[in-house]
Amino acid sequence: MKKLLVIFAAFAASTALISCMSSGSHAMQNGGEVTGTRGATVMEPSPYGMVEVKRGYLKVGLTEEDSLWGTGAQTRDISVDGFWMDQTEVTNSMYRQFVEWVRDSIVRERLADPSYGGDETFKIEVDRNGDPVTPHLNWTKPIPWRKPNEDQERALESVYRFHEIDGTKMLDAAQMNYRYEVFDYEKAAMRKYRLNPEERDLNTDHAVDPNAEVIISKDTAYIDDEGRIVRETITRPLSSMYDFLNTYIVNVYPDTTCWVNDFVNANNETYMRNYWASPAYNDYPVVGVTWEQAQAFCAWRTEYLLRGLGPQARYVQRYRLPTELEWEYAARGKEGNPYPWESETVQNNKGCFYANFKPDEGNYTEDGNLITSKVGIYGANSNGLFDMAGNVAEWTSTVYTSGGVNAMADLNPELRYAAAKEDPYILKRKSVRGGSWKDPLSLIRSAWRSCEYQNQPRSFIGFRCVRSKASSSSATSNSKKK
């Protein structure tokens, strides 16, 4: 036995020696030079419904002669990295998928609730080995819409209501709340918010007081006892990484009444009743959606994407709203034109309009449409993007300021501010780009800036999403100065 142990020890020692020699041999093969390690190759397929906008340079803003109100024009040379952008505006059909997902998540929660029969298979709380896991809904189990039992039928009906006057069955919009969390990586990276006091100031010759408090603000939200969404901004001493995690709860149902509220003394009841509900408008851009709801859609779209990706999910960039300058850069096309099309005119040689807007005072129909149009029926710009002028104006992620582009960096410019509920309304303005079906030619230029309050739905504002690229684009667009 002793001899066997000696042999085993000798084998182990020789194995260790071989291991060391192998490492040294590898180093000698590289001549002792540092050649770097290689991770797995990241494959990023083209996202569905998106086109690539390559990185490039552009002089953005209005030129002097374009200034509409006689004020000083804001122009600046900027550079942006490549990104993916929705080829069309988000449609009613796409947004309805979001609303119905919220509905189905509520239904699954109630089907698992003992008050509605307590079918535990709709909610997973333990793994296959019986060990507890973070409770989450089981999306692989179908909802029994066709043949529910009595308890299940109560759960299914609980998300609907009946109109008080005509008895129409409809989705209970007040319940369609989506909760999501956003970790603020940018704030967490800032030195003044480091958890380790010694990392907070690298330019002093004395240690930072470890007992000094660092005050930080974060957003949180909850549903009160009366079913109302309560949003709060908490300001407190920094204590952990959870102080960078913001929680939002947003009612995602679009405001169908925007059609009558935006146009007083107009007969727009038909649009109010049909634009969102009728399948005839499936491929029209969604409207009546606030900036906050558009942000929630981006968060949900990311969650929906990541659910089935597995380990590769860590490399996937999240859906978001475009920055104001990304939007303008993409709209101008590869040539950097004032409009998404090349010419200064609004019609081609056959008399067809390039966009859905208001060509003449009060004449909305001259371009072939009265209100919005189906997405993608007008020609795309040189980036392959449709409706970057007219149809609906589009939310961007950028806070609106009078300083505009001059208040931003010239590399991937952006100004962000998550306005709290108690903030003055002027801090809740977000930049809106592109003009809409109701705007004249001067307001659909790619450089024209307008704004709207982040909680204000409109019948002429929609949005589209972007995704940053997993790596910087290797090719550069041929954007020209304008």
Across the major sheet, the strand order is 1-4-18-13
User: Per DSSP, what share of the residues sits in E-state strands of 2 or more residues?
Assistant: 15-25%
Strand tally: 18
Model regions low in confidence, pLDDT < 50 over at least 5 residues: 1-25, 64-72
List the total number of helices: 8
Cα distance spanning the termini:
87 Å
Order of helices and strands: HEEEEHEEHEEEHEEEHHHEHEEEEE
Helix content: 10-25%
Please summarize the sheet with the most strands: 4 strands, antiparallel
Shape: globular
What structural category do the secondary elements indicate?
Answer: alpha+beta
Radius of gyration: 28 Å
The overall pLDDT, averaged over residues, is: 87
Description:
- The chain is of the alpha+beta class.
- The chain has helices at residues 2-29, 92-112, 150-157, 185-189, 258-262, 269-274, 291-306, 324-331; strands at residues 50-53, 56-61, 75-80, 83-86, 123-126, 132-137, 160-162, 169-171, 177-183, 215-223, 229-237, 245-251, 319-320, 393-399, 429-433, 449-453, 461-462, 466-468.
- A hairpin with a 6-residue loop joins β7 (160-162) and β8 (169-171).
- The longest helix has 28 residues, at 2-29.
- Mean pLDDT is 87; it is low at 1-25 and 64-72.
Tell me briefly what this model is.
By secondary structure, this protein is α+β, with helices and mostly antiparallel strands. It is built from 8 helices and 18 strands.
Essential attributes:
about 475 residues, alpha+beta, four-stranded antiparallel β-sheet, four-stranded mixed β-sheet, 18 strands, disordered N terminus
